[in-house]
RNA sequence: GCGAGAGUGGCGGAAUCGGCAGACGCGCUGGAUUUAGGUUCCAGUGGGGCAACCCGUGGGGGUUCAAAUCCCCCCUCUCGUACCA
């Protein structure tokens, strides 16, 4: 064994303890431990990119690691796993460019990620490591797809997708920016293609309702609510003049039906061809063609002026029985409601704009509330004249017909329900609820994803495979380029494509689409529970023991997609009796993004960091000499402000890195990384070291067994209390402050009682586990302190016999006096007034009032 | 537009059951140790005033003995989202 170092050298002790934990399986989670309560703490697993870990990853991972280590010492049986979300586009793109198989790229990246993550000393149970690209994992992803299919929740549909002709592939919405491909900036058009869809809409109501009971950030819950987008209103049928069909619209404002002066259909509306008048046909055809070339994003973004054309057809307003023109316009989406609207220009901003553009009639049927209108800067007379739009509340006018509907004078809410009821009685419509949420497009035309367990027979029939035929493995390929026809690269794997039904001998062709990256992450938290199970996705007994996830930490960028998809799958599994909880993640915390430091010139232009020179605390452009302003910005390759964790660990050690990231500020806050600041934490660890280790490398001579005197004892117990409380609430920044206060005191003390030192190391160990283990060992212990019981705070030791009391005169601080801690208000008053300085300040004035808060302050209110 | 969150020293941040604003750290200033640099240690560090004191938590108003914290109005920034009928 090497001679014990006299100075703190993280590079020596950190690998030593990481090996030790791994070898001894220190952090193995035990199924069904009868003696300890379970705790499941989950990190969002990373996509192992070629760039390696960035400083954002270890932020959340450090937080959960501290929490887990703390909870173990509190007697919990902790499940804390890590794995790899390893399917995805970058590895495939790299394969197209270089011919390297994505599996090789992925393996290499995982190895690098694993090395980096281990270098932080996180207390994962590595025996539960999973990888979504492992056939033994995706076997069960495919199996869950079978369950979805059998429940009727997976179906094939011809839907418009983002098709990029230049790239020869379909793109996800996230991959399309302003109607062009994110990669290469090629145009993207909408093209209908047959796709697998998942019926997430069937779960819309439960996904919405069950949010209420989750311990999640309110912002994330609100985002999911908005995404699901529940609204209630009515469906109304409009008959088409001279036509047998009717057009059904959805409206949240059935009360405004009397103001519906025209109708607008989506350009994709199926009834369009049969109703369009011959003289309008060519204009309609041209408009539809143009609309189809726009991506959905474009359609919504270029929203300044409304466009549309008249179809030449008319519908009959069911309450006024007037004939109203039917238009088409791309501000109406086929994907929401019924793809058709009744337009009430007087009371809907969008319809108002459209009506103004095309000179359509605007009829006010609602007198705005005077006060609300004034607050909105609207003149009621204008609204009444149809010159302004009012979508707020008020009293209905001009809203009665001869068929028994009279809304005049009613407020909006009552008019709504009255109209819905009238429509229902007349068979013209009914109350209805809609959601913005759409079914989940689940196909990707890619190689590097889970193959579908699906075969198409020669007659076109799609059939799912038996569980016994899983996993459907990805075939070996050498050319990963898209086929160009919109088919996946898998269409090139000829041998693999051909399928013969083992039972019937029928010949078929395998599905060439693969699943999106979300698939693997939809259920990975369940596989961690039983990661090596070959017979089933997980053992139900183990699931029951470990679920739900007690704490889930990750970035807010997954607020909607991943978290909504996973909740959806989980609910399906719950309905199938495969999991025991209706929700997967009981408590969710989002760590804030870590920004890099960047620079900009006078014109707000960003300057890459390698062009910046620092002089006397100011910053200048290396080439132009211009003074630059420092500001925090997202880390990016182009700004050259990316911080590499490997370099930081090499220089300061993992413990300092961990402490720094936690000390930066609240976990949830966005924070700028400033490498200079990490030195403060490095110094702190140096002080911890010197508090215990003397110059010669042996224990510091100040360490002895003298009993603690009052003040040091109070500091010790205050630290135990503060660190423990902060670990529960994840307020690690203030816990670290308190430990600094401890070390600032004891590091200078003549006597450093061994017991206090040991308690402190336990408090420090979740935060800086390597140095804590090393010093714990040097204090003579043989076992890891990972399972030592957490120190108990003795409240009695926190009490002081004398406390400093602030004396205020008229609410302003005057002086501070030592008083007995238990002094009551009257005693405090006497003690304060006895003080010469106070007496002088009060002298000659009459005391109006004295407010005394025992243990804190006393305020004397005096008037001349 | 809508939704969510946030504005505190030169910087990161602390203190929000109303009770000493600026804990802790970075930076900075001065000193000690060191051949020197670094390290380490000590002292100081919101602004103004030699001082008593005054001013200070985005701005304005209010409640209170007492407001960063509670109430009203306004401004700015960040994130998310966007013709959802």
Structural overview:
By secondary structure, the chain is of the alpha+beta class. The chain folds into five domains: 35-133 and 518-591, HUPs (Rossmann fold), CATH 3.40.50; 231-435, Valyl/Leucyl/Isoleucyl-tRNA synthetase, editing domain (Isoleucyl-tRNA Synthetase, domain 2, Alpha-Beta Complex); 594-633, no CATH class; 650-796, Isoleucyl-tRNA Synthetase, Domain 1 (Orthogonal Bundle), CATH 1.10.730.10; 801-863, Ubiquitin-like (UB roll) (Roll), CATH 3.10.20. The protein is built from 28 helices and 37 strands. Strand 20 and strand 21 (462-464) form a beta hairpin. It is globular. The model has no long low-confidence stretch (mean pLDDT 90). The structure holds one RNA strand of 85 nucleotides.
Helical run tally:
28
Indicate the low-confidence ranges by residue numbers. Answer: none
Form type: globular
What is the domain total for the residues? 5
What's this model, at a glance?
The protein has 864 residues and is of the alpha+beta class.
Q: What are the main properties of this structure?
A:
single chain; alpha+beta; Rossmann fold; Isoleucyl-tRNA Synthetase, domain 2; 5 domains; 28 helices; 37 strands; RNA-binding
Secondary-structure map:
Elements lengths: L9 H14 L14 E6 L13 H17 L3 E3 L3 E2 L4 H10 L3 H17 L11 E2 L3 H16 L3 E11 L4 E3 L4 E2 L2 E2 L7 E10 L5 H6 L8 H11 L1 E11 L5 E6 L10 E4 L6 H4 L5 H13 L2 H6 L7 E8 L6 E6 L11 E4 L5 H10 L7 E3 L1 H6 L4 H5 L9 E3 L15 H15 L2 E7 L4 E2 L12 E4 L4 E3 L29 H4 E3 L6 E4 L7 H4 L2 H4 L12 H7 L4 E5 L5 H15 L12 E4 L2 E7 L5 E2 L4 E4 L2 E4 L5 E7 L11 H8 L1 H10 L7 E2 L5 H15 L10 E2 L5 H20 L2 H15 L5 E2 H11 L4 H10 L23 E8 L2 E9 L4 H10 L1 H7 L3 E8 L3 E7 L1
Parallel strand pairs: 1-2, 1-24, 3-4, 12-14, 24-25, 26-31, 32-33, 34-37
Antiparallel strand pairs: 5-6, 5-9, 7-8, 9-19, 10-11, 10-13, 10-18, 12-15, 13-14, 16-17, 20-21, 20-23, 22-23, 26-27, 26-30, 28-29, 29-30, 34-35, 36-37
Helix pairs in contact: 1-26, 3-4, 20-21, 21-22, 22-24, 23-24, 23-25, 25-26
The structure holds one RNA strand of 85 nucleotides.
